[in-house]
User: What shape does this take?
Amino acid sequence: MVQPLPPLAWFRAFECAARHLSFTLAAQELNLTQSAISQHIRSLEHRFGCALFIRKHRGIALTDQGRRLLPEVANAINILRSASETLETPADKRLLTISVSTSLAQWYLAPKLKYFAEDHANLGLRIISKVWPDEFAGSKADVEIRFDAPGSAEPGSSRIGSNKIVCVASPDLVEQTREMSPETIAQFPLIQVLGTSDSWTRWSAVRGYGGGLNITCNVESHGAAVDFARSGTGIALTSYLVAAPSLIDGSLIRLEQQDMQAHDGYYLTIAQNENVVQAEAFSKWLQAEIRQAEIAAEALSTG
Assistant: This one.
Protein backbone atom coordinates (compact mmCIF):
# COMPACT_ATOMS: atom_id res chain seq x y z
CA MET A 1 0.00 0.00 0.00
CA VAL A 2 1.36 3.42 -1.00
CA GLN A 3 1.87 5.68 2.01
CA PRO A 4 0.28 9.13 1.74
CA LEU A 5 2.58 12.11 1.26
CA PRO A 6 3.54 14.20 4.30
CA PRO A 7 1.66 17.52 4.51
CA LEU A 8 2.95 20.32 2.27
CA ALA A 9 3.35 22.53 5.37
CA TRP A 10 6.08 20.18 6.68
CA PHE A 11 8.03 20.45 3.41
CA ARG A 12 7.62 24.24 3.28
CA ALA A 13 8.95 24.57 6.83
CA PHE A 14 11.91 22.36 5.97
CA GLU A 15 12.75 24.18 2.71
CA CYS A 16 12.48 27.63 4.28
CA ALA A 17 14.53 26.70 7.36
CA ALA A 18 17.17 25.06 5.16
CA ARG A 19 17.37 28.12 2.91
CA HIS A 20 17.84 30.52 5.84
CA LEU A 21 19.58 28.02 8.15
CA SER A 22 17.33 29.53 10.80
CA PHE A 23 14.04 28.44 12.35
CA THR A 24 13.44 32.05 13.40
CA LEU A 25 13.75 33.49 9.87
CA ALA A 26 11.68 30.64 8.45
CA ALA A 27 8.93 31.44 10.97
CA GLN A 28 8.97 35.10 9.93
CA GLU A 29 8.76 34.28 6.21
CA LEU A 30 5.93 31.78 6.61
CA ASN A 31 4.10 33.86 9.23
CA LEU A 32 4.28 31.02 11.77
CA THR A 33 5.73 30.70 15.25
CA GLN A 34 9.23 29.28 15.68
CA SER A 35 7.64 26.47 17.66
CA ALA A 36 5.39 25.57 14.72
CA ILE A 37 8.39 25.47 12.35
CA SER A 38 10.27 23.22 14.75
CA GLN A 39 7.25 20.93 15.13
CA HIS A 40 6.74 20.59 11.37
CA ILE A 41 10.38 19.66 10.86
CA ARG A 42 10.36 17.16 13.74
CA SER A 43 7.26 15.56 12.22
CA LEU A 44 9.06 15.25 8.89
CA GLU A 45 12.13 13.76 10.56
CA HIS A 46 9.96 11.27 12.42
CA ARG A 47 8.26 10.30 9.16
CA PHE A 48 11.58 9.73 7.37
CA GLY A 49 13.30 8.19 10.38
CA CYS A 50 16.34 10.44 10.18
CA ALA A 51 17.55 13.84 11.33
CA LEU A 52 17.44 16.59 8.71
CA PHE A 53 19.18 19.29 10.78
CA ILE A 54 22.00 19.40 13.28
CA ARG A 55 20.81 21.63 16.12
CA LYS A 56 23.68 23.79 17.34
CA HIS A 57 23.85 26.26 20.20
CA ARG A 58 23.96 29.23 17.83
CA GLY A 59 22.19 27.90 14.77
CA ILE A 60 21.40 24.88 12.66
CA ALA A 61 23.09 22.97 9.84
CA LEU A 62 21.84 20.39 7.37
CA THR A 63 22.67 16.74 7.84
CA ASP A 64 23.70 14.63 4.84
CA GLN A 65 20.09 13.44 4.55
CA GLY A 66 18.88 17.05 4.69
CA ARG A 67 21.26 18.05 1.89
CA ARG A 68 19.95 15.19 -0.25
CA LEU A 69 16.34 16.16 0.36
CA LEU A 70 16.61 19.94 -0.06
CA PRO A 71 17.11 20.23 -3.87
CA GLU A 72 14.15 17.95 -4.58
CA VAL A 73 11.85 19.74 -2.14
CA ALA A 74 12.94 23.20 -3.35
CA ASN A 75 12.33 22.20 -6.97
CA ALA A 76 8.88 20.82 -6.16
CA ILE A 77 7.89 23.99 -4.29
CA ASN A 78 9.11 26.14 -7.20
CA ILE A 79 7.01 24.08 -9.61
CA LEU A 80 3.93 24.53 -7.41
CA ARG A 81 4.66 28.26 -7.14
CA SER A 82 4.93 28.62 -10.94
CA ALA A 83 1.73 26.64 -11.44
CA SER A 84 -0.09 28.91 -9.01
CA GLU A 85 1.18 32.07 -10.70
CA THR A 86 -0.37 31.01 -14.02
CA LEU A 87 -3.82 31.20 -12.44
CA GLU A 88 -3.42 34.01 -9.94
CA THR A 89 -4.17 37.63 -10.76
CA PRO A 90 -2.01 40.31 -9.12
CA ALA A 91 -3.69 42.04 -6.20
CA ASP A 92 -3.80 45.36 -8.07
CA LYS A 93 -5.61 43.85 -11.06
CA ARG A 94 -9.19 42.85 -11.71
CA LEU A 95 -9.75 39.67 -13.71
CA LEU A 96 -12.28 40.05 -16.53
CA THR A 97 -13.59 36.72 -17.82
CA ILE A 98 -14.83 36.76 -21.42
CA SER A 99 -16.68 33.75 -22.79
CA VAL A 100 -16.77 34.22 -26.55
CA SER A 101 -17.69 32.45 -29.76
CA THR A 102 -14.61 30.88 -31.33
CA SER A 103 -15.13 32.80 -34.57
CA LEU A 104 -14.99 36.21 -32.88
CA ALA A 105 -12.07 35.12 -30.71
CA GLN A 106 -10.19 34.19 -33.87
CA TRP A 107 -11.00 37.17 -36.11
CA TYR A 108 -11.28 40.04 -33.61
CA LEU A 109 -9.75 39.17 -30.24
CA ALA A 110 -6.61 37.37 -31.42
CA PRO A 111 -5.37 40.22 -33.66
CA LYS A 112 -6.80 43.16 -31.70
CA LEU A 113 -7.06 42.37 -27.98
CA LYS A 114 -3.52 43.56 -27.26
CA TYR A 115 -4.66 47.15 -27.91
CA PHE A 116 -7.48 46.87 -25.39
CA ALA A 117 -5.05 45.31 -22.89
CA GLU A 118 -2.56 48.15 -23.37
CA ASP A 119 -5.26 50.70 -22.56
CA HIS A 120 -6.40 48.72 -19.49
CA ALA A 121 -3.13 47.71 -17.88
CA ASN A 122 -4.81 47.17 -14.49
CA LEU A 123 -7.12 44.52 -15.95
CA GLY A 124 -6.32 40.83 -16.29
CA LEU A 125 -8.13 39.00 -19.10
CA ARG A 126 -9.33 35.41 -19.23
CA ILE A 127 -10.65 34.29 -22.62
CA ILE A 128 -12.84 31.18 -22.91
CA SER A 129 -13.76 30.30 -26.50
CA LYS A 130 -16.77 28.14 -27.34
CA VAL A 131 -18.77 27.08 -30.40
CA TRP A 132 -22.25 25.86 -29.49
CA PRO A 133 -24.75 27.83 -27.35
CA ASP A 134 -25.12 25.03 -24.78
CA GLU A 135 -21.36 25.16 -24.09
CA PHE A 136 -21.83 28.57 -22.45
CA ALA A 137 -23.96 27.15 -19.63
CA GLY A 138 -22.29 27.58 -16.25
CA SER A 139 -19.34 29.61 -17.57
CA LYS A 140 -20.00 32.49 -15.09
CA ALA A 141 -18.30 34.98 -17.38
CA ASP A 142 -18.36 38.76 -16.97
CA VAL A 143 -18.93 39.13 -20.73
CA GLU A 144 -20.60 36.46 -22.85
CA ILE A 145 -20.67 36.60 -26.65
CA ARG A 146 -22.46 33.70 -28.27
CA PHE A 147 -23.84 32.80 -31.68
CA ASP A 148 -27.54 32.12 -31.29
CA ALA A 149 -31.04 32.42 -32.68
CA PRO A 150 -33.08 35.48 -31.56
CA GLY A 151 -35.54 33.40 -29.55
CA SER A 152 -32.75 31.62 -27.68
CA ALA A 153 -30.61 34.63 -26.81
CA GLU A 154 -30.12 35.43 -23.12
CA PRO A 155 -32.45 38.06 -21.58
CA GLY A 156 -30.77 41.46 -21.62
CA SER A 157 -28.38 40.53 -24.42
CA SER A 158 -27.78 42.79 -27.42
CA ARG A 159 -27.00 41.79 -30.97
CA ILE A 160 -23.62 42.92 -32.27
CA GLY A 161 -22.54 43.61 -35.82
CA SER A 162 -24.67 44.07 -38.91
CA ASN A 163 -27.43 41.60 -39.51
CA LYS A 164 -26.10 40.23 -42.82
CA ILE A 165 -25.03 37.00 -44.47
CA VAL A 166 -22.69 37.14 -47.48
CA CYS A 167 -21.29 34.83 -50.17
CA VAL A 168 -17.49 34.97 -50.12
CA ALA A 169 -14.66 33.12 -51.82
CA SER A 170 -10.95 33.25 -52.46
CA PRO A 171 -10.04 35.44 -55.47
CA ASP A 172 -8.16 32.48 -56.91
CA LEU A 173 -11.24 30.25 -56.82
CA VAL A 174 -13.48 32.67 -58.70
CA GLU A 175 -10.76 34.23 -60.86
CA GLN A 176 -11.44 37.80 -59.68
CA THR A 177 -15.11 37.69 -60.75
CA ARG A 178 -16.91 39.73 -58.11
CA GLU A 179 -20.58 39.71 -59.13
CA MET A 180 -21.95 36.23 -59.83
CA SER A 181 -25.43 34.94 -60.52
CA PRO A 182 -27.04 32.39 -58.15
CA GLU A 183 -26.86 29.81 -60.96
CA THR A 184 -23.09 30.28 -61.27
CA ILE A 185 -22.47 30.32 -57.50
CA ALA A 186 -24.44 27.10 -57.01
CA GLN A 187 -22.14 25.17 -59.35
CA PHE A 188 -19.04 25.82 -57.23
CA PRO A 189 -18.16 23.70 -54.18
CA LEU A 190 -20.20 25.22 -51.34
CA ILE A 191 -19.29 25.47 -47.64
CA GLN A 192 -22.16 25.03 -45.20
CA VAL A 193 -22.11 26.28 -41.58
CA LEU A 194 -23.87 23.78 -39.34
CA GLY A 195 -26.22 24.82 -36.54
CA THR A 196 -27.60 27.91 -38.27
CA SER A 197 -30.86 28.53 -40.13
CA ASP A 198 -29.00 30.85 -42.53
CA SER A 199 -28.23 27.92 -44.83
CA TRP A 200 -27.69 27.51 -48.56
CA THR A 201 -31.26 26.21 -48.73
CA ARG A 202 -32.54 29.51 -47.31
CA TRP A 203 -30.23 31.38 -49.67
CA SER A 204 -31.81 29.52 -52.61
CA ALA A 205 -35.29 30.52 -51.46
CA VAL A 206 -34.30 34.19 -50.95
CA ARG A 207 -32.59 34.36 -54.36
CA GLY A 208 -35.37 32.47 -56.15
CA TYR A 209 -32.94 29.81 -57.32
CA GLY A 210 -34.55 26.42 -57.85
CA GLY A 211 -31.61 24.32 -58.98
CA GLY A 212 -29.26 21.97 -57.17
CA LEU A 213 -26.59 22.91 -54.63
CA ASN A 214 -23.05 21.52 -54.64
CA ILE A 215 -22.49 21.44 -50.86
CA THR A 216 -19.14 19.69 -50.36
CA CYS A 217 -17.94 20.91 -46.95
CA ASN A 218 -19.80 21.25 -43.63
CA VAL A 219 -18.16 23.21 -40.79
CA GLU A 220 -19.23 24.03 -37.25
CA SER A 221 -18.65 27.80 -37.18
CA HIS A 222 -18.55 30.92 -39.34
CA GLY A 223 -14.87 31.31 -38.47
CA ALA A 224 -14.13 27.87 -39.92
CA ALA A 225 -16.20 28.72 -43.01
CA VAL A 226 -14.03 31.80 -43.56
CA ASP A 227 -10.85 29.75 -43.10
CA PHE A 228 -11.91 27.16 -45.67
CA ALA A 229 -13.08 29.81 -48.13
CA ARG A 230 -9.74 31.62 -47.82
CA SER A 231 -7.96 28.36 -48.67
CA GLY A 232 -9.99 27.94 -51.88
CA THR A 233 -12.06 24.98 -50.66
CA GLY A 234 -15.28 26.56 -51.88
CA ILE A 235 -17.73 29.43 -51.59
CA ALA A 236 -18.90 30.19 -48.03
CA LEU A 237 -22.25 31.60 -47.02
CA THR A 238 -21.20 33.26 -43.80
CA SER A 239 -21.58 36.09 -41.32
CA TYR A 240 -20.55 39.47 -42.70
CA LEU A 241 -19.22 40.34 -39.26
CA VAL A 242 -16.77 37.40 -39.31
CA ALA A 243 -15.85 37.77 -42.98
CA ALA A 244 -15.12 41.53 -42.77
CA PRO A 245 -11.41 41.29 -41.77
CA SER A 246 -10.73 38.93 -44.69
CA LEU A 247 -12.62 41.15 -47.12
CA ILE A 248 -10.45 44.05 -45.96
CA ASP A 249 -7.14 42.22 -46.44
CA GLY A 250 -8.25 40.85 -49.85
CA SER A 251 -8.03 37.17 -48.97
CA LEU A 252 -11.78 36.95 -49.65
CA ILE A 253 -14.03 38.75 -52.11
CA ARG A 254 -17.76 39.24 -51.98
CA LEU A 255 -19.71 37.60 -54.79
CA GLU A 256 -23.06 39.38 -54.45
CA GLN A 257 -23.88 43.01 -53.77
CA GLN A 258 -27.42 42.24 -52.65
CA ASP A 259 -27.59 41.74 -48.89
CA MET A 260 -29.22 38.72 -47.33
CA GLN A 261 -30.58 39.47 -43.88
CA ALA A 262 -29.42 37.00 -41.26
CA HIS A 263 -31.74 35.15 -38.95
CA ASP A 264 -29.14 34.04 -36.39
CA GLY A 265 -26.34 36.19 -35.05
CA TYR A 266 -23.91 37.13 -32.30
CA TYR A 267 -25.31 38.31 -28.96
CA LEU A 268 -23.40 40.02 -26.15
CA THR A 269 -24.43 39.81 -22.50
CA ILE A 270 -22.84 41.63 -19.57
CA ALA A 271 -23.12 40.11 -16.09
CA GLN A 272 -24.30 42.56 -13.45
CA ASN A 273 -21.50 41.97 -10.95
CA GLU A 274 -18.48 43.77 -9.49
CA ASN A 275 -16.78 43.84 -12.93
CA VAL A 276 -19.65 45.51 -14.77
CA VAL A 277 -17.72 48.75 -15.46
CA GLN A 278 -14.79 46.84 -17.00
CA ALA A 279 -17.18 44.59 -18.92
CA GLU A 280 -18.97 47.59 -20.41
CA ALA A 281 -15.63 49.11 -21.45
CA PHE A 282 -14.70 45.88 -23.21
CA SER A 283 -18.12 45.71 -24.90
CA LYS A 284 -17.80 49.26 -26.25
CA TRP A 285 -14.29 48.56 -27.51
CA LEU A 286 -15.26 45.33 -29.30
CA GLN A 287 -18.36 46.80 -30.92
CA ALA A 288 -16.33 49.76 -32.17
CA GLU A 289 -13.78 47.36 -33.71
CA ILE A 290 -16.57 45.41 -35.41
CA ARG A 291 -18.21 48.57 -36.77
CA GLN A 292 -14.91 49.82 -38.19
CA ALA A 293 -14.21 46.47 -39.87
CA GLU A 294 -17.66 46.29 -41.44
CA ILE A 295 -17.51 49.89 -42.68
CA ALA A 296 -14.08 49.28 -44.23
CA ALA A 297 -15.27 46.05 -45.87
CA GLU A 298 -18.37 47.81 -47.23
CA ALA A 299 -16.26 50.59 -48.71
CA LEU A 300 -14.12 48.06 -50.57
CA SER A 301 -17.07 46.11 -51.95
CA THR A 302 -18.85 49.23 -53.24
CA GLY A 303 -15.78 51.21 -54.26
